[in-house]
Design a protein that fits this description.
The protein is of the alpha+beta class and 446 residues long. It has helices at residues 7-16, 27-39, 111-125, 147-151, 224-238, 273-290, 313-325, 370-386, 407-420, 435-441, and strands at residues 43-46, 52-56, 68-73, 95-98, 101-104, 134-139, 161-164, 172-177, 179-188, 198-206, 211-212, 242-248, 257-258, 262-269, 299-304, 329-333, 343-354, 358-367, 390-393, 425-429.
């Protein structure tokens, strides 16, 4: 990492990537941060939720400056290629540099938000930076529930300004974010044997770009679940299709990902199998043409497979109808002229997982208008309720409203111009950020 600049940041990032830190399993990272603060003689606090705060006093002459909070989250999204043997609870991330980019070998890199953590640790360890009082805050479980931000009590942080180091693109400063709700549905059943004379088939789709259901939802990327639903619905309308398995999306907890692959196992009357194969091929051509800009490496496969128990016909029909019908993608753009380019409200169906006697579906809804967020989440809830599913929703998290009078934004924009000779882009993001929760608990924070 020594050749990478700034070296002190990438040195810290290399150390962080030796520490397993899946969401909700950050204990080793918490212990590392606690020891780091104590080893550097800095006041270090761990709250009951597991958030870590390390205070660094001002350098000489800056004691009267307002306290600035630097904040990042310690967990990472854990995803890997299907043929890679890797345990995110035990193994260290293996990184390499190719051209201008750092990559990980077969796994996610962990820069979200390991690079934010590394910036904070580099500043805490430095003895050559002039600054006012600093509070470095590391929250847990941002990716799968914002648990750390939810659990943090008012008073844990004491600063006047907060800089969230969880951004995406160079030269962009985010000043607002969407709120969100997760909606999950479950279909419960007892399997039954397929009717006699049925032919079993397995269809797979992979190679989609996927992406983040907030930041990438407006890029018209294909959703593997919705594509497979379209095929199943059309076949179900034509013949007595019986569904056995449907698995798509990384896992039942990955609500914030656009699914990039999927597998279905189904049976049709044996005399219909050639017609189904022809329909699959035609459907493939149509979908590839539909997504010829955003998803150019789709891989399709349909073949025979062994017979197995199937879902009851009523569940079979209602499940496919519900996923065909449920809203997905961008539903409204922002009404304010200044933010007309930004998504206001969206929904993403993220995961379908089949168990022996249950199918679980996970989706997420987002909006920076809280009334429309609730309306969208209820529309998704009602779709699955009509299909006979058991539906649950979490309490969600709030949107973070833009403060047009922010002193911090003005200072940051001027500093960026001075450093790089150009103005940054100041914008909102459709993804969720912990800032929404901080703004509720710390209304004075800029």
């Amino acid at each position: 990492m020594a050749e990478l600049k700034p070296a002190r940041v990438f040195e810290q990032f290399a150390k962080i990537n030796q520490i397993p830190r899946p969401s909700k399993h950050e204990d080793e990272m918490i212990a590392y941060l606690k020891k780091f603060g104590e080893d550097h003689g800095l006041e270090t606090l761990v709250d009951e939720t597991g958030n870590v705060l390390i205070r660094k006093p001002a350098t000489k002459g800056y004691e009267n400056r307002a306290t600035t909070i630097l904040q990042s989250h310690m967990d990472m999204v854990c995803d890997k290629l299907v043929d890679v043997d890797f345990d995110f609870h035990k193994d260290a991330i293996q990184t390499y540099v190719e051209g201008d980019w750092m990559h990980a070998k077969g796994t996610t890199l962990g820069a979200d938000d390991g690079i934010g953590d590394a910036i904070e640790l580099a500043i805490l360890a430095a003895d050559d930076i002039e600054h006012g009082p600093i509070e470095c805050v590391f929250t847990r479980d941002e990716e799968t529930g914002l648990t750390g931000a939810f659990g943090m009590k008012a008073g844990f942080m004491t600063g006047s300004y907060l800089i969230n180091l969880d951004s995406e693109d160079e030269g962009q400063i985010f000043v607002s974010c969407a709120g969100g709700i997760n909606t999950s549905a479950s279909f419960n059943f007892a399997r039954e044997e397929a009717p006699k004379g049925y032919f079993f088939m397995e269809g797979t789709l992979k190679g989609l770009n996927g992406g983040h259901s907030g930041d990438d939802i407006n890029k018209k990327r294909a959703n593997a679940i919705k594509i497979l639903a379209r095929f199943l619905y059309m076949q179900q309308e034509k013949t007595d299709l019986r569904l056995a398995q449907w698995n798509s999306g990384n896992s039942g907890k990955m609500h914030n990902a656009i699914p990039r692959d999927g597998k279905i196992v189904f049976a049709v009357p044996a005399d219909k199998k050639e017609e189904v194969k022809a329909d699959w091929n035609n459907f493939q051509k149509d979908v590839e043409d539909e997504y010829h800009v955003t998803d150019t490496h789709m891989e399709w496969k349909l073949g025979s497979t062994d017979a197995q128990p199937v879902l009851p016909k009523a569940v079979n029909v209602n499940l496919i109808r519900a996923i065909q019908a449920v809203d997905n993608g961008v539903l409204a753009m922002c009404q304010d002229e200044a933010l007309a380019w930004m998504v206001e409200t969206s929904s993403n169906i993220a995961s379908v997982q089949t168990e022996e006697n249950k199918v679980n579906i996970v989706s997420s809804q987002r909006s920076n208008v809280m009334s429309n967020l609730k309306n969208m989440a209820n529309a998704v809830k009602a779709t699955f309720q009509l299909a006979g599913a058991e539906v649950k929703q979490n309490d969600g998290y709030p949107a973070w409203k833009m403060n047009p009078e922010s002193k911090l934004v003005k200072i940051t924009v001027e500093a960026y111009k001075k450093l790089f000779g150009k103005a940054p882009i100041v914008k909102g993001i459709h993804a969720g950020l912990e800032c929404g929760l901080f703004s509720e608990k710390y209304p004075h924070l800029d």
